[in-house]
Amino acid sequence: MFGVLQGFALILGIIGAGYLTARFRIVEGDQRRVLNSVAFYVATPALLFSVLSVSDPSVLLSPVILVTSTSAVIVASVYVIASRLWFRRDLASTTLGATTAGYVNSNNLGLPVAIYILGDAAYVAPLLLVQLVVFTPVILAVLEATRHPGDTGKGSLVRGALLAFGRAASNPIIIASLAGFLVALIGLPIPEIVSAPIDMLGGAAIPMVLLSFGISLRGQRALAPGSGRAATFTASGIKVLLMPAVAWSIASLLGLGTHEVFVATIIAALPTAQNVYNYAATYRRAETMVRDTVFLTTFASLPVIALIALLLGE
Question: Which of 49, 42, 44 lies closest to 277 in space, CA to CA?
Fold first, then answer.
């Protein structure tokens, strides 16, 4: 549990540094978007290529990935239904809300959880791969389509989808993820002269996103009236309560072993990934709602993870 606390302290410390950066006017207003842009177009692609290029593609066949991926799709669908019934939003905002409900922080929080609670860092690799290679292209395709609505408003839905996926295919995050996955798949060695600068750039991705997140908190009270609190509370509740319950149910129904059920449930309880905020800030859609959901789930997930570890831990 100490490792999990370290992971949370790391995240909150950098967010706090970002807030102080804004508080002392080192960075003001929309200047923070420079951090988001550099993270989105440069540092994050480098990080994803570094991670995926040395991963084991066979982990995609793990039964845990089936459970966690299915759980993510189910809870995202629940959010969409709830949104349609109680707080209708445009397509981009609904997509980002559904993403916050099912897209887990499998990197900077998932890794310490996997190491110190699950006993093996490889447990988060499958979901990391699926989120990057499968979920992210779909999310970015939708956001790209809403960025240029004129392209998808004419002709058939199929044509619109092709246009959106075509734009998403040129996205540096998608390109880097697929390139890293292919390198791992064929076992292509990368010389250090190439990998070293990529690794260094990748190391800046998470700090930049967290700093920008902290800067965005300055001058804006979290969960303020009119900020879409219904959507935020719904997404947060689905993420930290419903998703682990769904994962536990599916894993149990599939007859997985006690340890695999435990692993799937813990992974599903991880908070919303900060990457979702980076997408929202880059495309300038539902930023406040996504920011508040990331903030809320980061705090709320800790007692939930502790409770799961107490009830299901071996």
Answer: 44
